Amino acid sequence: MPAWLNDAVFYEIYPQSFYDSNGDGIGDINGIIEKLDYVKELGCNAIWLNPVYDSPFMDAGYDVRDYKKVAPRYGTNDDLIRLFKTAHEKGMKILLDLVPGHTSDTHPWFTQAKKAEHSELSNRYIFTKTVWDAPPQYRMMCGICERDGNYMVNYFSSQPALNYGFHEITHPEWQLPCDHPDCLATVEAIKDVMRFWLDKGADGFRVDMADSLVKNDDEKVATAKIWRGVRDMLDKEYPNAAMVSEWCSPERAINNAGFHMDFYLDHAGNGYNRMFRGGDWGAEAAFNPNGCGSLKEFVEEYLPAYEISKNNGYISFMTNNHDMPRVTAYLDKRAIKLVDAFIFTMPGVPFLYYGDEIGMRYQSELVSKEGGFSRTGSRTPMQWCAGKNLGFSTSDEPYLPVDSSKDAPTVENQKDDPDSIFSVIKSVIALRHKYDDLKGNGELELIYENGRIPFAYKRGSMLMLVNPLSSYQTIKTDYRGEKVYSIGSFETVDEGIRLSPQSFVMLKLS
Q1: Residue range 229-285, pLDDT digits in tens
Q2: CA-CA distances (angstroms) from residue 261 to 27, 57, 138, 277, 344?
Q3: 150 and 219 share a domain?
Q4: Residue at a domain's end among 163, 194, 209
Q5: pLDDT of residue 314
């Protein structure tokens, strides 16, 4: 396990939306390099970079045309190598986004595989035997290529699924077992991509749709076996490299597949959702001050997952990501402060989505761009300062518009405001770095009554108390300590600690 993960706080950068250094309306790698000091000063010592590979951008770069080439709009391979080098000089790590389940339909592998004549790449993707064979349980593209067969896609029509085999063979005339040489060759091709960038300075990968490799693999046994082999390769050849999975199943992703981290994702009705986004646009979220939320789903899901995986890896909370509406669409500013204070004081390795530190808004009215659809409103340009395009670009037409509101949040108008979300995030991340008990490996004791709110949690000598509600609340506890940080006020009473409405308190225990 890479030791640096214990004190890692990640910042997710959506490259086309972060900072445009050359005025073409699209963010780029040199823009990221220019803003590294900003990220570091915020307290983030690691970056997850969404895909920067060559792509036709039918799905924002998650449709890769060339895994070993940086998209020209972002710069060059040399620019990316310079980003690695500059980040390392500042004590920062960079994870690239690995897309192993599919490629673009313009990738050279696919343009060869879809030809009628057989080649060594004919089985790199999943094709049925004939064009008349299109089983309804699979997502197939039918009758659009020279080859007599239909091909499986992972999601969008432009994303043909790479062939890692089938765990259960239901159509032997075209489905291959996982140990078929051509399926093993697919695994080796992805390992080759990983080695290519690790050798150039990358510190690891966030893995897109990590559970999507082997088909007919409901329990993900065969998929986990592939990732365990990748982990063995990393342990042997790149022991300081790390992987985080888009999986949201710590037992499978961490314990079985060998990922160092697994994202706690927002799925309808799950623990993450019920804490921060539940019901009708947050109406039943635990952090909503209206009192309609509960800890029940979160406690029942998260605590067992944490206990079973904590000795093998980290569950990663995130403020948001590029695939879901920003939390500003669900909760008010005060509630978001409490959410952030909670996320950055929990065990695991936390991730901060660019712009969340200033409370950027979700722009729901935008037309889909580059396959974003409902996600487009969470991918708008970073808002740095007053003026043209809020400091993102000098272009007259940036690829997406910035927030046009008169009170649009920017780094400039948030960073020196003690009442800002920015101030909370920067302060709490600093405390996470300062106190070992608040880092990734620290223990956790959750203090609550039958899923009710408010609640508290203890991490070694540190006690955090949270009252998301709009009224004064008392948490029953015998713990006492010295205040380290607070949002709102508190007082010690006979039965415990009384908290003001919508408050968060951190105590160092006596």
Answers
A1: 999 999 999 999 999 999 999 999 999 999 999 999 999 999 999 999 999 999 999
A2: 28, 27, 29, 23, 16
A3: no
A4: 163
A5: 98
312 and 241 belong to one structural domain: yes
| Residue 233 confidence (pLDDT) | 98
What confidence score (pLDDT) does residue 442 get?
A: 83
Between the alpha carbon of residue 97 and those of residues 49, 74, 204, 239, the distances in Å are 6, 15, 9, 19
The CA angle 437-441-442, to the nearest 5 degrees, is 30
State the Cα–Cα distance between residues 375 and 201, nearest whole angstrom. Answer: 30
Pick from 390, 341, 339: nearest CA to 363: 390
**Backbone φ, ψ for residue 190 (5° rounding):** -70, -40
What is the count of structural domains for the chain? 3
Q: Which of 348, 334, 328, 137 is nearest to 262 (CA)?
A: 348
Q: Mark out the alpha helices in 3-48 (DSSP H runs).
A: 29-34, 36-42
Using an 8 Å Cβ cutoff, are 140 and 134 in contact? Answer: yes
Tokens of 96: 């690239």
Domain boundary among 381, 414, 436: 436
Please check whether residue 175 lies inside any domain of the structure: no
pLDDT band, very low/low/confident/very high, at 451 (cuts 50, 70, 90): confident
Distance of CA 262 to the CA centre of its chain: 9
Regarding whether 107 and 97 lie in a shared domain, the answer is no
The one-character DSSP state at 397 is S
Query: In this structure, are 231 and 335 located in the same domain?
Result: yes
Element (H, E) at 190: helix 181-198
| 42 vs 262: CA distance, rounded Å | 23
Is residue 171 in some structural domain? no
d(C-alpha 127, C-alpha 114), whole Å: 9
Domain that holds residue 451: 443-509
H-helix or E-strand spanning residue 422: helix 421-434
Number of neighbouring beta carbons within 10 Å of residue 136: 6
Are 452 and 430 found together in one domain? no
CATH number at residue 193: 3.20.20.80
Q: What tens digit of pLDDT does each residue of 139-161 get?
A: 999 999 999 999 999 999 999 99
Identify whether 170 is part of a domain: no
Rounded average pLDDT over 320-338: 97
Map residue 47 onto helix, strand or coil. Answer: strand
**2 close to 8: Cβ distance less than 8 angstroms:** no
pTM: 0.98
Interval 461-481: pLDDT, tens: 999 999 999 999 999 999 999
The answer on 215 and 131 residing in a single domain is no
Residue 297: in which H helix or E strand, if any? helix 296-309
Q: What is the DSSP letter of 418?
A: T
For residues 351 and 426, membership in a common domain is answered with yes
Closest CA to 259 of 189, 198, 307, 211: 211
